[in-house]
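Predict the assembly for these two chains.
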Amino acid sequence: MRIGKDLVAAAATPVVLGILAEGESYGYAILQRVATLSEGELEWSDGMLYPLLHRLERLGHVHSEWRRSEAGRPRKHYRLSEQGAAVLADQRRQWSVVGGVLGKVWPDDGGPRVRLAFGEA
Amino acid sequence: MAPAEAETPGLEALVASWRRWMLRHDALTEPDVDELESHLLDRVDQFVASGLTHDEAFLIAVKRLGRTDDLSREYAREHSERLWKQLVLDGGGAEDARATDAPGEPLPLFRRANGLAVALLLGVGAGLAVKTVQFAAGVPAAWLNVAVTVLPFLALWFAWRRRPRAATMIGAGAGAAFVVAGLALNLYPFAAPDGSSAGALSTATGLLAMIGSCVGLWLVVGAVEAGGAWRSSDARMHFVRFSGEWAVYAVLIALVGGALSALTVAVFASIDVDVSAFVGEWVLPCGAAGAVLVAAWLVEAKQRVIENIAPVLTRVFTPLVTLMMLALIVAALVQWNVVDANRDLLIAFDLVLVVVVALLVYSLSARDPLLPPGWFDRLLLVLLGAALAVDLIVLVAMVARTGEFGFSANKTASLGLNLILLANLAWATLLQIGFLRRRTGFAALERWQTAYLPVYLAWAGALVLVFPPVFGFA
């Protein structure tokens, strides 16, 4: 199953903020974490993460700092700001409202229409 | 596997060429590419650990970054300001830019922003020097010595920026030039024919010497700028480009500075405080002297950032000036009164030739030497031909008149300049024809213009040193 482009784009900000809420991280590690958490279902091309991180930094949701990796390579680390934490909490409320609505219109058994579609009525 | 590895370029070479490719996109800056590179290498490490070779891993890692166009568009959307190149005040320069947003030691103050602090200090120094001369010897003397007082600071700026290898040699040469010009300007007894002591600038030879000192010492500054390489054609062309950009910035600064000064005077006048004397006596002279340095600093700071503007102006105005010249030929033939024209004509045509030479030089300076001749090069040939034709007509007329009325300092100076420019344009026209016929390379055109620079220096030197005594300081 591939998740649609618009949904990926909409989910990107809360997912990235959520991962940064676990502790500071850098681009590559964030992508690895997304891959692990979604078991490879939620994917976007690697490069696109960085403009997103830059946008979050410009908005003040994250701060960044250049460090060195164990291999001695320069690496840019991102850390959630207080404002970013507030934004994350807000996004979380919004997503749970959406999730709640979806949960109600899509009951676990799929609802009458789906039952109809699968010929179980 | 080992021989195959030896034939394929190493990972570092692959990454380096990928970096170059990425940096061609305006929306991506060096720190962005640093970040992407760090990511790329992490990915490569991951793939290599799972058994791929380095170049396989590299290819997949690059692929996973996404299409470069999409990526660049995404960066451009986030950093739209980058498509409008800004002046970087804290850092500047490709190698310095990393200092602000990349690991590394912060730069010392005087090194930051391409040495803005040093440029400002030198600018203040130039302003104070002008005021000192004015207090010591009066306003006319300050004007007479303007090149001698201001340009040494520009030379110092270049000495500081370039750190020429043969520093003492160049310093001694430039210093000697400044001292000789200064001595000549101030020790020659310029005197108006009616005996009034209105200052050297009221005499023709004094005014010519002042103009000569500006041009000559500017070229001397060019020698300092080029450092040890002042004989090289490339270094000279670099200074020519600098001069064009500097002139554009200087005009912009003068416009804005003038407007702001007028506004200041007006605003203070509205509350009955008269600041016009202060603005006129302090702000304008010091500001103008300082602007020389600030404009020089701007050229260096923005050199890598924006398209050079002088060649752009050249492209816009070459067709118009060509039309103007052709119209002039027609008008001169129809009217046929050049011989009776007034005596300012030669000076006017000097200016026309200066404009043509400038258009030629700046269109050469921005041209890609590898391109085959195109319509613009043909247009230049038309312009050159028209300028030569008009100037020959004028020259013959003027020589006839001068034979009648004798030589004055002004006439001789403009006649000399006219001949110098005419010789330059004549040979340039031949070279241009050769270039259009693919007989000579483009480099010959460029070399001719840069090789000609010392001729201007010699003529400027003659104006300062030889003309006053020959024409009796009148």
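The mean pLDDT of chain A is 85. Helices of chain A lie at 5-21, 27-38, 49-59, 82-105, 111-117.
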